[in-house]
């Protein structure tokens, strides 16, 4: 006999990146809240270039290990189909500030 929790575990889709419970579709893929925020921050702050893998780019990413290697986690996000273009970039460059219209 199945217990309710077993049924829920079976029905609720798991995050394709870290296997945590999902909270909805984020940037094109159904992921958990943690991976959503991680992906958003990485893209908005252009952090991808600062990530590096100390192993051979094949780190295991799951709920326990997802914080270990940001590069492998980010690659897994991209492989899952998350779209960087769906993330609104922060305008941190003062040159990009909207200019006031001169009348
Ligand atoms: Zn996740
Ligand atoms: Zn890695």
TrEMBL record:
<feature type="domain" description="Nuclear receptor">
    <location>
        <begin position="12"/>
        <end position="89"/>
    </location>
</feature>
<keyword id="KW-0238">DNA-binding</keyword>
<dbReference type="GO" id="GO:0008270">
    <property type="term" value="F:zinc ion binding"/>
</dbReference>
<protein>
    <recommendedName>
        <fullName>Nuclear receptor domain-containing protein</fullName>
    </recommendedName>
</protein>
<dbReference type="InterPro" id="IPR001628">
    <property type="entry name" value="Znf_hrmn_rcpt"/>
</dbReference>
<keyword id="KW-0479">Metal-binding</keyword>
<dbReference type="InterPro" id="IPR013088">
    <property type="entry name" value="Znf_NHR/GATA"/>
</dbReference>
<keyword id="KW-0675">Receptor</keyword>
<keyword id="KW-0804">Transcription</keyword>
<keyword id="KW-0805">Transcription regulation</keyword>
<dbReference type="Pfam" id="PF00105">
    <property type="entry name" value="zf-C4"/>
</dbReference>
<dbReference type="InterPro" id="IPR016355">
    <property type="entry name" value="NR5-like"/>
</dbReference>
<dbReference type="GO" id="GO:0004879">
    <property type="term" value="F:nuclear receptor activity"/>
</dbReference>
<dbReference type="GO" id="GO:0005634">
    <property type="term" value="C:nucleus"/>
</dbReference>
<dbReference type="GO" id="GO:0043565">
    <property type="term" value="F:sequence-specific DNA binding"/>
</dbReference>
<keyword id="KW-0862">Zinc</keyword>
<keyword id="KW-0863">Zinc-finger</keyword>
<keyword id="KW-0539">Nucleus</keyword>
């Amino acid at each position: 006999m199945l217990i309710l929790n077993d049924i829920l575990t079976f029905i609720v889709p798991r995050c394709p990146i870290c296997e945590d419970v999902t909270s909805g579709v984020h940037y094109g893929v159904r992921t958990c809240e943690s991976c959503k925020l991680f992906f958003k921050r990485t893209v908005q702050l252009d952090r991808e270039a600062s990530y590096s893998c100390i192993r051979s780019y094949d780190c295991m990413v799951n709920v326990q290990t997802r914080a270990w290697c940001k590069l492998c986690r980010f690659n897994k996000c991209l492989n899952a189909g998350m779209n960087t273009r769906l993330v609104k970039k922060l305008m941190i460059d003062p040159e990009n500030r909207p200019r006031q219209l001169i009348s």
